[in-house]
Sequence to fold (760 residues):
Amino acid sequence: MSDYTNRRQEGSRRTLNRRDFLRSASALAGLGLLAACAPAAQPATDAGADAPAERTTVRYLSWWFEEGNRGETWNNFVDEFNEYQAEIEVVAENIPFDQYTTKTIVGTQSGQLDGDIIMATPELAPRLIQSDLLVPLDDVLIRNDITDLSSAHDALRKDGNLYGLDMVTVAFGILYNKDRYEEANITPATTPQEWVDVSAALTDRENQKYGFFATHLVSEPSDFWFQLEVWCMPYDGIWAEGTTPLLTSDPIIQGLKLFKQMYDVAMPQGADNPTGYRLFQNGDVAQGLYVSAAVGAFTKDAPDLYPKLRSAPIPWETNKSIARIHPMMINKDSEVVEESMEFVTYMYEPDNYRRMVEGCEDVIFAQPSAARQEYLDGLEWLKPGFFGVDYLTPFDIVGDFVYNFNEFGQIVITNFADVLIAGKSVEEAMETAQVQAEDLADRIS
Amino acid sequence: MSERVDADGLAGPPRGVKAHPLLRRRYLLPFALVLPIVLYEGLLIVYPIVQGIFGSFTRIELASSAATTWVGWDNYERMFSDPAFWKVIRVTLLFTGLVIVVALTVGLLTALLFNRPFRFRPFARGMLMMPWAIPEVPVVMIFIWILSPQFGVVNILARMLPGVTKNPQWLQVPELAMGWMVLISSWKAFPFYSLVILAALQAIPQELYESARVDGANRLQLFWNITFPGIGSTLELLVVLAAIFSFKQFTIIFLMTGGGPSGTTETIVIRIFNTAFRFYDYSYATALGVAGFVVSLAVALVFIMMQVRRAGDSA
Fold:
């Protein structure tokens, strides 16, 4: 017997050599591969001919499935629709609001628009419409015989087709804690300066009591700009017209100075959004600019506070505020457009739509005829701050920058933050912002 | 019959005998083994880098039907003429430099401390690793609470200082914000450096210290002439690692200040993120990314050169 053979036999007596290891590993990998390629295991019992037919899955993307009563209402509607018929299974997929726009825009760039049914913000919607990524929804109106759709939908049309249906319009108003007003013997303000005075009177920094809160940190850019956009209203300004930024215009400068005054005399400076929200829940912050859609959340988040909530009249002459429309849309590249259309049609059936709005405790009806007066009368905080106000939309206040709303807002807040914490004047900061916004206009035009 | 032994010491077939096909394939084995990592690196690292470099020469508009256009050096010209870019570079270098100094100094001091025997030393060493072991997001949440101008516990300490009558806005005052970013990043990183230095300290032969003591060396001389040279190469490595780690620090800064106030904590990685995902200026962000890549590469090259020089000295 040769040495070669001896060594082979000797090797085979060893516990595990490299070749054995590799051989075993390849065998295992091969088995794994075979297992992976094999058809999925069948259930022990035959499915049978009477098993229900497989449903078509429709992916519905939104940020609100975990948002208090709004989330609960929508989840219930999804379940209700899935039980109501047997062919379609709508699956709710939640994406946090802060990531929603970025995820949608970047996702679109990297391939295609994700999801079958998607919710959009007032700024995301025109971007998607402009990029021809959506299916026209006029058919939903015909199927439901709807003739009184709100005029806010005009911004969702292109070439005569309607690409989005409003599921919640949120309006900005001043929400306050009536106990704090009563303790300080204060009546709601009627002018911007009175508003500052009222807020200052409600503030006692030593005892952590504040008259007003608005998000003001650059580390929370979405929330900061979301609130700051309203501050063009007190002096009847707009942020931009067409592609021309108006950041150095007098109404904008005055509006931002008003914010700075509030920051100086009444706000918990440096507090982030969760802290501000918590201070308001505790009664330590007396008032804030809140959207109507957020008020309903207090029924769950702060049930003790909710009965004390009231809205103040808009304290500026024009009585204007901002309303933001959030449309439901259908992805043009979806493979289940017809099934998606079924769900949208179901949700826009007037009675379902009314139940949805009431469930979310919203107050602006995209189908005005669906509104129930008893429901509106039951909301103590509705009047006067969220009722009878003249509403503008983001389309009206930022011009063509509505297609690049976040970028525009980022420019404003980044520069305005220097006013709040670095001692820059509003004029100086907005001068810089104006130049940057003009550069942005060049880039996007 | 003679026997052939190949490079790795395994026997091959005798000379003149034709190798079995399986055996011939064995010579391909090394290539097969490195293939997964080459594919992984190629797909997930090299390809994105190449794509990023290519993107920096184009104009890409997100969520737009506009086609990607070739713009040559435009993004780089814009970058070099942008004062904000140079400010970001200054902030990045300042942040990186401070973190290296603070984290390594604290790491060295704690390593020296933990190299000495004392009661409960194993437990103390375990505790030392805590900051490093905690993920960054909870750390950020904890520090946001500690530094809250309304509820932060650090305000109690601050108000004990003469002249401090109200709670400071720790993350809103530019100098304080940068200070806290450096402190928190250093606090998070120093246990790792401490551990590595500790290992290096334990590798220094005790005989050297004994001989030096016999010769009358004091503690400072012991440290300067034995300890420091003994851990010199380790410190060099840690300086490079600390530079790379702090250069790419994102989570802590992004979540705590977002680069503010007034851009005083906006390092290049934060700037890249903000440009790409807040301003949606994707092409310019890729140019900034390339700049960041070049700086990282330069640091890595410095380290390699140091290693080569050291290897040359040893030889």
Remarks:
- The domain at 82-137+181-314 of chain B is CATH 1.10.3720.10 (MetI-like fold).
